[in-house]
Structure formats: structure tokens, C-alpha cells
TrEMBL record:
Listed GO MF terms: metalloendopeptidase activity
Residue ranges of the TM segments: 7-29, 108-132, 299-321, 350-369
Keyword Ubl conjugation: no
GO BP, one annotated term: proteolysis
Name of the molecule in the record: Zinc metalloprotease
Residues covered by the Peptidase M50 domain: 19-363
Length: 376
């Protein structure tokens, strides 16, 4: 299988469409929040573009030129006074109107509006999911067998759908353990046990009773991976909740996700500066995102809702990073101006922002290359 065939197999047309739709909506709401952050303070917004690149259509409405651009991969707003003015001789002069005249808190409010909107969308999407489908509590030290293949080795050994594996080879499944540097639930030990040849004992709970299933195992047969014939996953308990409980659980989920998100970004920067293209469970590129969305599209609506929440959560946190060129970096520059008693000049801010934007572009290129390297 060549490179392009591998990518085509990973992505589906439906997944590609949903990826573009989810990212476009997340970006549109992000930029719309910046727009309203400016308008509510009386600052004019010169243009609002849905998409990037060449403009396909434009219309003037309420003092703003609304655009539809060719590439459906983002969007932007041009806020009056945020960029310098161009003089008649072509030189750039620091703006003295609109955004530039706002106090520091007003500037921060505009910049913060975009990431906050993405986090709010993630909060609402997660809350809707919990309200509709209930709150899942994971017992990662238990593996539930969801199905047994007819006439398989598992069926002949006595495995049954609904069995709960609590121990393997006399050792209780842990809640969590480290495998190849990653923290995983103990239920994944089932798969690792089936890569080891020899006698195995699976301790299972069935209808309130505990029993052992013993068997000899050979991981490969005639060069092919042997299959026991079970489908399994973590033991998950679902509790129905009302809207207040769903929103409370959504808030807890987002707060609990902060360390994982920061760790993922930290790993990404560490790999970027060392040019380490190895894969991890952190930040993925466009193909990886499309692959995840393609799988979610097969499962239906709520799986896509959860993907939408994840993308909005990632976009919100990423834009809050204090890197010039991102909203968090612009906020940092505003705060630096407060600490020094006067805002940075356009030349100073432009130099720092350009460097930061260059870093973001290089980081994006690295993510894309690392993403594609999986298919070589």
C-alpha cells in the first residue's frame, strides 16, 4: 500500500466533510466573539471573513464587509485600530483610533472573547451529551466482554457476553498503569496478556459469581495473529442526570482536562524543538483529526458532538497560550504594556508578533509532517 492509498483508507469523504464543518463552525464562533467584543465597546470591525485566502463573495452590512473566502480552514476579523494605518507615502503609522484607544481591560476583553467562546461551546456540547446520554463513570480496573464470536476459541473456553474480567493470571487489574510512557487503564491488560504465550487464567464475574477460565495460548498461528474471539472494553456505568447535573459534570470534565491538555502541548513543543517525529496520544494534525472524525461519523450524531467539543476545547486552550501571534500572546503584550506604564509601539509589537507567528507556522508544519509520517 502506497502513501496516498494509506491516507485514503484512513479518511472517508463523510469524515472530511464533517472535519471541515466542525472546524469552520468552531472558527466562525471564535471570530464572531472577537467581533462582538469589539462592537460592544463601540469599535468598528472593518471586515469579517468566513474562510481564508482569495475572497469569493463580499457584502457590506452594518459598517462591516462580510466575506466568504476560498479556503474553508479558518476565518478572521479586521478590527479598526488593531493594525497600523498606511500613510499616503506607503509608510505604516501606529493607529490612533478604535482598538488602539481602548484601555487595557477593553483590549483584553476583545482578545479573550474568542478562546472563551470556544471553551463555552465545548462546555455546552459536553453538557448536552451528558444530559442526553447520562454521565459515565469508568471502572478502569475491570474489562467487560461485550460479545463473543460464535464457534470461536473464546466460546469453547466458556467466555460469555457480559462477563467482567477482574484479574489475569492471579493479578487484579489495576486502575491505571504506565505502558510505553503512556498512562492507560488496567482493562487494556487483556490485550497485552494475549500477546504472551503460555497458560493464562482469566478471573471473571458472571451473575454475581466469580470463576476462573484457564487456557493455553499461542499468540501466532502459521505466521498470523491468533484471535481469542472476544470484543471487550472498560467497565462503564451510566447515570442519568438532569440539566444542572449535566452542566456541572461538563464543567468538571473541562477542569480535569486542563492538565492533560497542557501536558499534550508541552510534549508537542518538546518534540518540535528536538525534531522528534514519533507519535503520541497528544496533539494530532489534519489527517489525524480527519481520521478521528471519520470514525466518529460512522457512530452517529453524539460521537460527532463529542468530537466538536474536543476540537473547541483544544482551539480555546491553544489560543490562550502566551505565544505572540495567538490571542494569549497578544494579551501578554497588552499586560507588558500595563507593567511598563505605556503600550508597546507598533514596531515593537509587530516584531514580537511576527516572530511568534513564524513559530506558530513552523509548529503547524511540524504537526503536519509528523501526522503524515505515520503513512510512510
Amino acid at each position: 500500500m502506497n502513501f496516498f492509498q494509506a491516507i485514503a483508507q484512513a479518511l472517508t469523504p463523510q469524515g472530511i466533510v464533517w472535519t471541515l464543518v466542525i472546524i469552520a463552525l468552531a472558527t466562525f464562533m471564535h471570530e464572531l466573539a472577537h467581533y462582538w467584543g469589539a462592537k460592544l465597546q463601540g469599535v468598528k470591525v472593518n471586515s469579517f471573513s468566513v474562510g481564508m485566502g482569495p475572497v469569493l463573495a463580499r457584502r457590506q452590512w452594518r459598517g462591516t464587509e462580510w466575506r466568504v473566502s476560498l479556503l474553508p480552514i479558518g476565518g478572521y476579523v479586521e478590527i479598526d485600530g488593531m493594525a497600523p494605518d498606511t500613510l499616503e507615502d506607503g509608510r505604516m503609522d501606529s493607529a490612533k483610533h478604535g482598538y488602539a484607544l481602548l484601555p487595557a481591560w477593553g483590549k483584553v476583553a476583545i482578545l479573550l472573547a474568542g478562546p472563551v467562546m470556544n471553551l463555552l461551546l465545548a462546555f455546552l456540547l459536553l453538557g448536552g451529551n451528558f444530559w442526553a446520554n447520562g454521565v459515565q463513570s469508568l471502572r478502569a480496573n475491570r474489562a467487560v466482554i461485550s460479545s463473543v464470536v460464535p464457534d470461536s476459541r473464546a466460546q469453547s473456553l466458556g467466555f460469555r457476553s457480559g462477563d467482567v474480567v477482574t484479574a489475569i493470571d492471579g493479578q487484579a487489574l489495576p486502575v491505571q498503569e504506565t505502558v510505553k510512557g503512556e498512562q492507560v487503564g488496567g482493562w487494556t491488560r487483556v490485550q497485552r496478556a494475549l500477546t504472551v504465550a503460555g497458560p493464562h487464567t482469566f478471573t471473571v464475574e458472571r451473575a454475581g459469581k466469580v470463576q476462573d477460565i484457564r487456557f493455553d495460548w499461542t499468540p501466532t498461528v502459521n505466521g498470523q495473529r491468533a484471535r481469542l474471539g472476544i470484543a471487550y472494553g472498560a467497565d462503564v456505568k451510566v447515570q442519568r442526570v438532569g440539566l444542572p447535573g449535566a452542566l456541572a459534570e461538563s464543567g468538571r470534565t473541562i477542569v480535569q482536562a486542563v492538565p492533560s491538555v497542557l501536558k499534550a502541548f508541552g510534549n508537542l513543543f518538546a518534540r518540535f524543538f528536538t525534531l522528534n517525529l514519533s507519535q503520541d496520544q497528544g496533539v494530532v494534525g489534519p489527517v489525524g483529526t480527519g481520521q478521528v472524525v471519520s470514525e466518529a461519523a460512522k457512530l452517529g450524531g453524539w460521537a460527532l458532538v463529542l468530537i466538536g467539543a474536543t476540537i473547541n476545547l483544544s482551539l480555546g486552550f491553544f489560543n490562550l497560550l502566551p505565544i505572540p501571534g495567538l490571542d494569549g500572546g497578544r494579551i501578554l503584550l497588552v499586560l507588558v504594556g500595563v507593567l511598563r506604564g505605556r503600550p508597546l509601539t507598533f514596531r515593537q509589537e509587530s516584531a514580537v508578533t511576527t516572530a511568534g507567528f513564524g513559530l506558530v507556522m513552523l509548529l503547524s508544519l511540524f504537526v503536519v509532517v509528523r501526522d503524515l509520517s505515520r503513512f510512510f
